Every structure is written in C-alpha cells, then in structure tokens.
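Data card: per-record layout.
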Amino acid sequence: MRVIFIFLIALIATSVANAQQKFNKPVRSSLTLTAHHVKGKFRLEQLSTATNALLRRTPPALMLPTDSTAHLTWVTNISEPVIINLLLMSGSATASQKVYLQPGDSLSLVFNNQDTTDHDIMMDTLRSKAGALNNALAWYEFTNSIFAKVMWDRFETKQASLSFMQQQLKTMDSIYAKAQQIAGNNNYLQAMHAFNMINTRNYCWWYCDENKMTGAIPASLAAPAYDDKAFGLFNQPVFIKHILPGEVKGGFFFLYDWMLKQRFKKERATMTNDSTKMAFIGKKALGLSTYAPFRELVQYWYIKDVYFPYLQQSHSVSELAVARKLAATAAAPVKDTALQNRLQQLIVTMGNVLPGTPGLNFALEDHKGKIWHFGDLKGKVVYIDVWTTWCGPCREEAPLFEKMAADYAGKDIVFLGISADRPKDKATWIEMAGHKQTLQLYSGEKTAFMQYYQVPGYPTFLLFDKEGKVVNANAPRPSSEKLLKDVINKLL
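The structure for this 492-residue chain is written out next.
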C-alpha cells in the first residue's frame, strides 16, 4: 500500500513586498488537498508563526477509499500572506510544493500519481484552483528538479564538464523566464530563483574543486556564488521572511558558512598592515547580512580569517599583550557562545603564532615510521605545508611545493609536509607520501600540533627562521611564488 504523508513544515506569516492589500484582522483561509490514484493516509503538521516551534496536529487517520481519491482541508486564520511548504511522500516517491496563501483564499490543490513513475508525484496545474502564481511555482519547482537530478547524476559519475554546468545555469534561467510569464514579476519567485542559482553555482564550484578543475572555471560560473551581489540577496525581506526559515532548518548555515570563507579569501589574499583598510573591510563585512544569526557568522569569519591574520602580521611576540587586547575588543560583539569560545581559544594561543615565538618542538613520524623532532631542523629555514589527502586546494599546491623545494635544493631550507588526515585516511597518506621528494610527517587532526598553531584550514603554510622562530604562521602559498621567494631569500 502506498502512503502519502503531507507535512506542513514551514508556515511563516509575514508581509510580501508585492502584496496588493493589508489585513488588520485574521481572516479564515484554507487549502483543500486532493490526491488522485494514491492509496494510504494523510498526516498534517504546522509550524507555529509565534515561536517557530513545530506543533503537531495529527487528525484522525484518513484512509483513502478504493477509488484512490481523497480530500483533506486545512483551515487557518491569517492576517498577512504566508508561504506554505508541502512535502509529499508515498513509499519511495516524493514531491515538494510551495504554496502562496493570502488571507481569504480558498485554494484547491490536486496531486496526481497516475501514469507517473514512483518519483513523479506532482501538482496537477490543470485541475488545481490555485491561481497563476501557485501554478507557476509548481511548474518551476517540478521542472527545475528534473534538471537538478541530471546535474547530480553527472556529478556522481564525474561526467560534468564546464560547458555542461554553464548550460545547466542557462536552462535554469529559461525555466524561470517561463514561470515569470505565467506569474508575472513576483518578488518571491524572483528571490527563490536567485537562491537556487547561488546554490547551483556553489555545487559546481565544489565539484570543480574535488576534480581539480578550479584553474579553468570561468568567473561567470563560480564567482557570483560568494560575491557581494549574491550576499545582498540574503538581506532582502522576501528572502529573510519567506525562504530563509525553511532553508536554515535544511542546513543552510553550512552553505552560508562556506560562502563567507570564500568571500574573505579575497581580503586575506591582499592583506596589508594598514589598520585603516582593516577597519574598512570590517565595516563592509557587517553589511553582508542584516539577519542576526548570519551577522554573527559574518563577524566571526571576518575576525578569524581577516583581522586575526592582520594582528599576526603587524605584531611580534613582544607585543603579545597589545595584540590580545585588540583581538578581545574585536571579538566582544560576537554573542553566539560556540563562536565566542572559538575566538577565545584563538586569543589564548595567539602567543604561539606571533613572529619571534619559538616553534613547537613536535615529535612526528614519517611514512616509514621514523620519528622527527622540530629541533632536528634547527639551523635551517623551515617551510611547512599542513595538508590532507582529501583536500582539493592542497592537491593544487602540492606540485608547486615540490617544485619550489627543487629550486632551493642544497640551500639551508627544509620543505616539510605535515598531514592532518584522520586515522582512517592514514594509509592513503602513507602511499602518497612515498611518492614525494620532500620530507613528509603525520600529525592527524585535533592533535597537539594542530591546536598549538590553531590551524585554520587546509592547506595552511607556516614559515620559521633558522633559529626555529615563527616568521609567519599564515605564510604565502607556493602559488604566490614571487612573494614567497622574496621572504625566503631574506631568511637564507
């Protein structure tokens, strides 16, 4: 027997920019949901508009009759337009549909499973009495999901070329253009499409990163995924009030977190010791979001990825007290407990990464099991690459790291790779390390070495002078060849 569960998982009451009228008092509004050619029962859930808490409201079990047609009417009192997200599941078949409900509406939605595959439950726009916008939303989401599945199939089989991904984005734009013809220039539809495009660009970038294609990826495909224009979307009221709440529940914070890292890479790459520029970047960063939880993330990543590295470059270990005071002042506005704890840990360990600090005398093994100590390298400049076997950017820098080591062969400098791989990936590291000409040691993640230097991500490069003291705990990458060589040559 097939079962349909209808989950009403997102009901967010708020005004929409293009709504034609305002309502002062709640008005009875309803949705009648009809299922054709499906056997099973319905279940209904509602999201409270007051607390955003999920309130379960399960009616008596509604068994569908033998003719496989049944109706379920949901009634609510609303004073402003709402967006309702319906998730339908029948066995292995699923469908998702967003519904635009205005006060006083009595919408009738028909979902049909006749003559379709198990994955094609869809809203029947010919028989539904839901208005032009809802019909356009149904067609847009269903058609877009088909193309998304094609893209994911290509990703999983590693057959997605750059031209394919660019064509995918063009197709999504053409789907949106047709939906616009049906619904008109609706703000909600516009924001939803922009958000879908941002997501797709990020997935394309991840795919290119995993498959060593980032060097060839065009800016039109990847850059908009984390530029200021894209972040501007997240400040639009229609996005914050109608789209964001449901996406946050679906894990959007992880995507936003990643986008911020990419956004601040540009600032970190052009780092200077100009305090005025740092203040300007900080002010600009806070403009990326007006949504409070996202603003916390913006503050965190700006402080961690831009301001802390700036303090490291502009203060030596003799100025540790000053650097910590400045760092504490910058971190104070972050109220989120978890984020604040991370920043405080960075402040505590700041003395380990400021120029002039003696390096940690670690004891790490190479791929043959021999133990090496940092003290064994005294008298030589040491350039460390902290990497993992699964990291795309690490693989891009690896041949450049090996080439630079060859360029300095016979000089008083050691090019040292340190693996942060998890134990389950250690065998892969041993195999890869055996093919390198540079010294390779294994640390693992969340170990004394990683915590001592608060390694922010992979790859991270550290540079030490001949006395074993920190020169830069966030040193230039091998891909910045001229900049890196200028620094190394001064130390030799």
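Known properties of this structure: Confidence is low (pLDDT under 50) at residues 1-23, 40-68. Residues 131-156 form the longest helix (26 residues).

See the next section for split statistics.
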